[in-house]
Specification:
This protein is of the alpha/beta class. The protein is built from 10 helices and 8 strands. The chain has helices at about 5-20, 60-75, 85-90, 115-125, 135-140, 145-160, 175-190, 205-215, 230-240, 250-255; strands at about 50-55, 80, 100-105, 130-135, 165, 190-195, 220-225, 245.
Length: about 260
């Protein structure tokens, strides 16, 4: 665990590195960043934060239909599905306020930018409401910061007015890399930073959510995802600064006995 002064030093040094690149700024501002964390008293109150998620490669059509029916029944904010299932989710959720969220270059993030852009354009045409893209993790670790920025920016441009979340996969990053990933994503116009794919060596942590919030302030959102399986963990993510939760154990969480 870093001491406060060490963390502040990393943030300032990282900001200087990004400023030296003279990248344009496209910061996204959410229309509302109301802190609802203090309002959460029981598990069912988490439903409006949750993107009910099914991203495993073996997930079948019947399971996607069930996922959507559960999202309607329990009033989840949305569902998060692989691109191939966007049309089915859109059909099942027609007439509801439930969002269809899909993932781009998932779970590795190492597709060519043009392929990511094409994937965004196609999924939007099929009915996706929001985009969760995986950052090019290897390029970030190679300090190819302009390439990472341009990759994110082109995806966001392709998404047009649809919010884009950038998955930075915190489990593979150093503290400095997490800070730089957040700064690049924010500068490129991301609506949210997302902690994890759920396919890495570990998922979301309260420490990482808190770190991200300290870096980006209150201008953009945070989606905590990966390994959130109970009410206590879910609430702690919100308390640390998350605005969204990506969960496959959503029903267990909101039906957990207080």
């Amino acid at each position: 665990m870093l001491k406060n002064n060490d963390f502040e030093r990393i943030i300032e040094e990282s900001k200087m590195k990004i400023e030296e690149l003279k990248l344009p700024i496209f910061e996204y501002k959410l229309s509302s960043m109301v802190d609802k964390s203090s309002d959460i008293k029981k598990p069912s109150e988490l439903a409006t934060f949750i993107e009910h998620t099914a991203l495993k490669p073996e997930t079948n059509v019947n399971e996607i239909v069930l996922l959507c029916n559960q999202a309607i029944k329990y009033k989840f904010l949305g569902v998060c599905v692989n691109p191939v299932y966007v049309p089915i989710a859109k059909k099942e959720l027609r007439g509801t306020d439930c969002l269809v969220v899909t993932v781009i270059s998932f779970p590795l993030g190492m597709s060519l930018t043009d392929i990511k852009v094409a994937e965004v354009e196609k999924t939007l045409s099929l009915g996706a409401d929001e985009i969760d893209m995986v950052m090019s993790i290897g390029l970030l670790k190679s300090k190819e910061y302009k390439s990472v920025f341009n990759d994110i920016r082109k995806v966001i441009e392709a998404a047009k007015n649809k919010p884009t979340k950038v998955i930075i996969e915190t489990c593979f990053l150093t503290e400095e890399e997490k800070v730089i990933a957040c700064l690049l994503s924010q500068r490129a116009g991301a609506a949210y930073i997302k902690t994890s794919t759920g396919f890495g060596i570990s998922g979301a942590s309260v420490e990482d959510v808190s770190l991200i919030r300290n870096v980006v302030g209150n201008k953009i959102g945070i989606k905590a995802a990966g390994g959130i399986r109970d009410f206590s963990t879910a609430k702690s993510m919100i308390m640390a600064g998350a605005n969204r939760l990506g969960c496959s154990s959503s029903i267990n969480i909101i039906k957990e006995e207080s």
